[in-house]
Amino acid sequence: MKHVFLNLMNLEITFFFAAIIAALMFASCDMENDGEPIDESYSDYSVTIRFFVTDHSSHSLLNSTSEKVYNEGDIVVKSLQGDNIDYDIRMNYGNYDYQLIVDLGSYGSDGMVTNKFVIEWDHDKIATTDTIVCEIDRNEEKAVVKKMWVNGILNYVCNENIVNLVTETTLIKTNLEILDVYDGSSSSQSRVEKEDDGLIYKYWLTDAEGRETNVFSQQEVKDKGFIIHISATNATSQTYRYRLNKSNFSASVFDSEHKYRGTTCNYIWNELTLLYPGEIYKLSDNWCSYNEANIMSNNLLPAGKYYIYTSGIVPVVPNDIQEPMSIIPAIYARDMPTMILNFEVK
Predict the structure, then answer these.
(1) Measuring CA to CA, how many Å separate 301 from each of 201, 222, 254?
(2) pTM for this structure?
(3) SS3 291
(4) Distance between CA 113 and CA 129 in Å, rounded?
(5) How would you classify residue 24: left for phi > 0, otherwise alpha for psi between -120 and 50, otherwise beta?
(6) Fewer CB atoms < 10 Å away: N or C end of the chain?
(7) What is the Cα–Cα distance from 253 to 146, expressed in whole angstroms?
(8) Cα(144)–Cα(316) distance, rounded to whole angstroms?
(9) Do 245 and 268 form a contact (C-beta atoms < 8 A)?
(10) How many other CB atoms sit within 10 Å of the CB of residue 142?
(11) Is residue 75 left, alpha or beta, with left meaning phi > 0 and alpha meaning psi from -120 to 50?
(12) pLDDT tens, residue by residue, 142-167
């Protein structure tokens, strides 16, 4: 009987200490390292952002069929907050174009959080960097990118009406052929002129009143903007069917660090025009700080140095060639001569 009583006491003591240990373990699971209770609204979250990367003419800078592109080894994505980031280049089978896919994972609270990361690009030892800021709304069920800024410019706003929401946007970067020849000079020239096989191209800037210049004040840019002009003069004896579009001259402005700063107000698309000997073909486009609804746009340029450029292919077809443009031989398509205009905002 004495042995049974001792065994019962030992069993009760064992249960007592086990209960204490369990209670301590439960309490420790509900405490942070500093002894504060864990906020159950904190948990892991992840979002995926898909970037198309193009020049100002919407030509992909990731497409592997082109020579002047960024390859995966030329790109590094880094968090500015110590978050986990995975990235690669993948085919988008919706339009058979390539995208930079960034998978962003972090630990944070429910509600609105801000995440920052940079994309570093290397082209023949020419380095450029884009800073991305995401406003992310998260809860236990999902995380959604509500807004995204690229280099301080609003780039993306979530469309709440889209089902199966995908965060997809476009990064506009300088054409890589322009990077190869850009010398970073602060040229005082407001006009560039080049000749190409009998066509004389001129590229220049004026203020809103038409005065030729490449120096503008911040207030002037805000209130009135400025105007970009390009012309082609036919200095041959041949009549051509000819066309210049906005894709042939950069209506996009880049700063001295090659960061995209915005695009002119209008989209220009012209039909083929007969360009007679001695005739001038001209296009002009406005850089304005307000859109058609008179709402402030992103085109507010702080003080600094900027540039625009020409690029692309133009059809220059002798008028005696009457076939439709869809079957005109590629021999009649010419590369635009590269022209870079530097300007300054003070």
Answers:
(1) 27, 8, 10
(2) 0.78
(3) coil
(4) 23
(5) alpha
(6) N
(7) 26
(8) 48
(9) yes
(10) 11
(11) beta
(12) 888 999 999 988 899 888 776 556 78
